[in-house]
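Example 210.
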Amino acid sequence: MSRRARGRFSNFCNKDLIVLLDMDQVLADFEGYFLKRYKERFPNDPFIPLEERKGFFIRDQYAKLRDDLPDKVRAVYNEEGFFRDLPEIEGAVSAALEMSKMEGLEVFLCSSPLTEYQYCLTEKFEWIEKHLGPEFLDYVILTKDKTVINGHILIDDRPRIKGSCKSPIWEHIVFNACHNLTSEVDGKRRLNNWTDGKWRDIIEDFKKRI
Ligand SMILES: Cc1cn([C@H]2C[C@H](O)[C@@H](COP(=O)(O)O)O2)c(=O)[nH]c1=O
Ligand SMILES: [Mg+2]
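Predicted structure in complex with LXEULUCI:
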């Protein structure tokens, strides 16, 4: 049975492990591509190398360098084509595809769009279709508040995910990114990358628990 048919007919039965995958900096290289485009657009302005990135919002760290930089930062990721052209995080696409084919498991993409949605919204769908295939378009959740979304696991690079629900139902696995390596993660498990295969251990661990 195809993934689409399985999703429609299984009715998300209780035995299914629901995995929520963030997009930016988990599947798509937001930070690396941001820095590349920023340097191309503003070659004479100061920049922060990835090894020195700290904190989730890029513009907050650039604001400490100079007052005019946050607007330039925004101009880079608000540009047409930015989200569409984000490169893949190494191994992310093959891991997501492999995960989506596992028995007893449903994978959803759970991503927060920019408030300046003009390009971001449609381009996130374009990215998914291009990298993961059209079947994945039925499994997209775009929300500003991930705490109200149902699921067992959320794999996300943002170290603290806040919202209306004080006790989200999912367990947050922190995906390592340049900006969060020194962040306090309140005892949450971390996933280093998609290439060493450890994500499979996390999935197997959760499967035993549900
Ligand atoms: C790093 C960074 C991200 N954003 C925006 C870009 C996306 O719309 C969301 C991604 O959030 P998610 O937790 O990965 O779903 O946040 C931003 O506005 N500024 C930044 O510096
Ligand atoms: Mg993210």
